[in-house]
Amino acid sequence: MAGHSKWKNIQGRKNAQDAKRGKIFQKLSRELYMAAKSGGPDPDSNPSLRMVLDKAKAANMPNDNIQRAIKKASAAGEGENYDEVIYEGYGPEGVAILVYALTDNRNRTSTNVRVAFNKNGGSLGETGSVSYMFDRKGYLAIDREGLTVDEDTMMMSVLEAGGEDLETSDEVFEIYTDPSDFQSVRDALKADGYQLAQAELTMVPQTLIELAEKQAQKVQQLIDALEDDDDVSEVYTSGEM
């Protein structure tokens, strides 16, 4: 993990996502609905729902929207159903791309994803073609603004909580965990009084491809096209934007 800063990519894409806030809320509503439907509406007994709630709050999703999605999942009847589908491929400059989607129509989604790749200098690959280049990790970020804790103290807190690695920059502490330890590490850090700016399960590239500005713009164009699809929930890349 050394030298990897997910926070740079998060912040680099924030403005673009702000412009698509309504679409992001729509996608989060779908994730909340599926998590609550599969594991129940109580986040204390449903870790999946608790994670999506953290994600929704980090995106500043209104509480009314959150409760509406959970309530919809709790209503009687079968309701809607979505499948999680993963697409793998390459973008411009040979950057690896992983796409996670929640869809009620696999044919529609696969067609849209393929078109997005083809029109933006990428190519959709077979299952397993790039996923081996990524590791599943828990990721937490703590904003350093106003925080008096130094790196050594933070590292001690991370290790005591069960975290695996700490990356430090002037702006943020970034903590990585084994996926199975994510919930306990997050809860321990919260109990220590730390305010989390980001908390999620994510896919972390084993090797980053550093991109110049023009190269990054090409990759970002593909990512934007994928994220613009209503069915796409997450896009992961090995490019450092």
TrEMBL record:
The subcellular localization recorded is: Cytoplasm
Residue span(s) of domain TACO1/YebC-like second and third? 82-237
Gene Ontology CC terms, in alphabetical order: cytosol
Gene Ontology BP annotations: regulation of DNA-templated transcription
Q: Which GO terms describe its molecular function?
A: DNA binding
Q: Which residues form the TACO1/YebC-like N-terminal domain?
A: 5-74
State the SUPFAM superfamilies in the record. Answer: YebC-like
* Region called Disordered, residue ranges: 1-22
What HAMAP family does the database record attribute to this sequence?
A: Transcrip_reg_TACO1 (MF_00693)
> NCBIfam families from the entry?
PRK00110.1, PRK12378.1, YebC/PmpR family DNA-binding transcriptional regulator
Matches recorded under PANTHER family:
TRANSCRIPTIONAL REGULATORY PROTEIN YEBC-RELATED, TRANSLATIONAL ACTIVATOR OF CYTOCHROME C OXIDASE 1
Which family does the record assign?
Belongs to the TACO1 family.
Q: What is this protein called?
A: Probable transcriptional regulatory protein I6N95_21100
